């Protein structure tokens, strides 16, 4: 089976009737990026940069971060690299930079909330990324961003970084910008944010956690935290409909995108890109290549009508 799948790596990701989608990879290290070509991933759709801090004793300086992103771009060989700014807090514990004691860390000071409150952390990362963008295509996205004011603050910081880089005569490149859509508020507020964005990436892991009010790390809540549910489908559909109205690219980077059974449904709903764990990428490609786009649309239309979690999951798993 593995050998069979490997034969797909050079083939295009398209349905039997010729509808193309991009298959990108979720990565957390340079080592994972170095394996992209082995499986024919078209790029990185989510680079979890907080992983670089797992074993660090302090936040790396701008020079070290710049070198790190340049090394990543070198391994990408011209393919697009989607970097997520540091997503600290809640389930992502980074020893050298833990936001602190909170009663409800998942509802607390995490993601872009934390880094906007610590511009000395975000500025270093933004400057390093802007400079690295001189050497290859980078897409930048922000985690846990709910509200257009937060986006304004991020872009203001980016403008400041560009001004100071100019003054210091340090080169930088152009970036594409997106947000990780991972809270219900972000879905609801998309219309006001999309004019400032090139893409959105739906983070179904946290979007499910916040939509269902169920802790993603609590093993007692697996029934209350289903990976596929009518609620999450409705939120995905709302996001896609808003993004399409403003011609913004839609990616899905949560675990849901790595489930081969769910890929035709997401494609039928209008997703342009799936960002997937390396180990699942070729399996998802094989399913897409064996499906008709017209069937994907039918699956999406049927799925969105299901009101019960169990009924929806039975329908989707019965398709293969
Ligand atoms: C998500 O929340 O769906 C996501 C892709 O990011 P993470 O799992 O790193 O929070
Ligand atoms: Mg997340």
TrEMBL record:
Residues 3-292 form the PEP-utilising enzyme C-terminal domain. Keywords: Cytoplasm, Kinase, Magnesium, Metal-binding, Phosphotransferase system, Sugar transport, Transferase, Transport. The keyword Magnesium applies. Transmembrane segments: none annotated. One of its GO terms (molecular function) is phosphoenolpyruvate-protein phosphotransferase activity. Its cofactor is Mg(2+). It catalyses: L-histidyl-[protein] + phosphoenolpyruvate = N(pros)-phospho-L-histidyl-[protein] + pyruvate. The keyword GTP-binding does not apply. It is found in: Cytoplasm. Its EC number is 2.7.3.9. General (non sugar-specific) component of the phosphoenolpyruvate-dependent sugar phosphotransferase system (sugar PTS). This major carbohydrate active-transport system catalyzes the phosphorylation of incoming sugar substrates concomitantly with their translocation across the cell membrane. Enzyme I transfers the phosphoryl group from phosphoenolpyruvate (PEP) to the phosphoryl carrier protein (HPr). Belongs to the PEP-utilizing enzyme family. This is Phosphoenolpyruvate-protein phosphotransferase. It comes from Shewanella youngdeokensis.
